[in-house]
Amino acid sequence: MRQNAVRRAATGLVLALAVTAGALTAPAHSATADSATTDRAAAGPADKGRATDPAQDALDRIVAAGPPGAAATALRGRHTWNGTAGVADLDTSRPRTADDRFRAGSITKTLVATVLLQLEAEKRLDLDDSVEKWLPGLIRGKGHHGRHITVRQLLQHTSGLPNYTEDKQILRRLTTDFPERRYDTFRPEELVAVALGHKPDFRPGRGWKYSNTGYVVAGMVIEAVTGRPYAAEVKRRVLKPLGMKSTLLPGRRTTLPDPAVRHYSTHVGPEPGTAVHDVTEFSPTIAGAAGELVTTGGDITRFYRALLRGELLPPAQQRAMFKAVPVPGAPDHRYGLGVTSQRLSCGVTVWGHDGGIHGSASSAAGTRDGRKVLAFNVNGDWSDDPAAGEGLTDVWFCPSTPAAGRP
Q1: Strands 330-335 vs 349-357: parallel, antiparallel or unpaired
Q2: CA distances from 335 to 179, 225, 320, 401 (A)
Q3: Mind listing the domains of the chain with CATH numbers?
Q4: What's the whole-number mean pLDDT along residues 156-179?
Q5: How far apart are CA 25 and CA 355, in angstroms?
Q6: 385 CB contacts (<8 Å, ≥6 apart)?
Q7: Separation in Å, CA 219 to CA 19, 114, 192, 225
Q8: What are the Cα distances from residue 260, in Å, to 22, 88, 99, 101, 292?
């Protein structure tokens, strides 16, 4: 979830205010040459005398450009690399570690789409079912009607539903008024109602625009089909089977369980850009099924590796998830069902999702066969050098670029 006015849709690191419009890029990192995991938690130049690690150097440059800290986890086959830079807490100067939890924003969407595709495989719904079938009466007014919108369109951002986080009042709560309104809670129906106060962006199926509203509705469809909250189904179907013990969907919980990073923003308060604010605690109900995920780099790489390898979906649903449509204005990107592809400058295509939420920017991506996967997070939503993260993608995914641990 990310604000268009402050996002950068390009290869590499995206640092932006989340809980608003779309996330399209996938920064990348590298893995070690053996199965041992390594950590380094220091921002700045490489230590004299140690071998150059391009991925670690990229992390150092990112933190030098502004955000308090950064952490990356990358997989290559059985091999894992963890890199860290900077701090998890500005008050205590505690270094970042690979085990720190962070808010992952719109990466939530891939898990929601996975559950709906599993339900289709079980013949409990069809992706081409109308929203009206499962949520009668929810989508009405201002030219909207649920009978014209399908579940597939919700997942692919082709529904035409306006993005509730672009509503002026909601946006003000997320920025200028955030310090006073950070603990406001929302029901999914309330967020949908905000979106329905605006006319459709286009007729369903006749365009593409990133919409958090669609995924809030998708979470409601899961509950209508299963009789259980969407978060319970994600936990039962994805988190537990994959052993993602550090991942949670917090609901109304405003704090993060330890160990966790503090999150920092310069985009909130009556005078945005003038101070750094600790925005770690707030009600994630403003994001819900569109972006409330809390996780770690290790957990999220485990998830994407399993997904890309076809371990979570049968072949028909796997093909449906990765059947992607063009993203207007981003010729190197396409969007499937809860996943986005990016064609890198070296010609390699990676799949995943990124996400931002107050004080946190994250990305996860992998090759289509799941052999190489990465996850990345920074615990600050600003940068003096938006291009600082561009080298990370090439380091890990482009064959001609030296990566950490390669002979």
Answers
A1: unpaired
A2: 34, 25, 11, 26
A3: 4-397 (3.40.710.10)
A4: 97
A5: 9
A6: 61, 65, 66
A7: 16, 11, 12, 10
A8: 25, 8, 8, 4, 15
CA 321 to chain centre: 16
Distance between CA atoms of residues 242 and 135, nearest Å: 30
pLDDT tens sequence across 260-297 = 999 999 999 999 888 999 999 999 999 999 999 999 99
Q: Kindly name the residue from 35, 93, 106, 362 that is annotated as catalytic.
A: 106
Beta-carbon neighbour count of residue 230 at 10 Å? 27
More confident residue, 226 or 7: 226
The SS3 of residue 24 is: coil
Whole-prediction pTM: 0.89
pLDDT value for 41: 38
For 82-136, the DSSP string reads EEEEEBS-TTT-PBP-TT-BEEEETTHHHHHHHHHHHHHHTTS--TTSBHHHHST
Tokens for 255, please give them.
Answer: 């704090």
Whether 130 sits among the annotated catalytic residues: the reply is no
Q: Nearest 5°: CA angle at 108, between 107 and 111? A: 105
Spatial separation of the C-alpha atoms in residues 30 and 354, rounded to whole Å: 17
